[in-house]
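Q: Could you fold this chain for me?
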Amino acid sequence: MEIARGFHLKKEPLATIHLLNRAYEISPDTVSYNLFTRRTTDELMTTGGATVRDEARALARKIKLVPAA
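A: Sure. Below is the predicted structure, expressed as structure tokens.
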């Protein structure tokens, strides 16, 4: 998650969401309750490009940030 934070600060949304997804695969509970992850995922659902938005929505459902559709 710290590497994802670095890419987020560099305004690299694709790398950010990719790393957050990898972190979720490794430790779902840690990612699900991390405030940076929740805030950034929410942000990327609206500000990222099409690919980033889709991946952010998928991660948001996994971490229960939005209801599963």
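A (continued): DSSP finds five helices and no strands in the chain.
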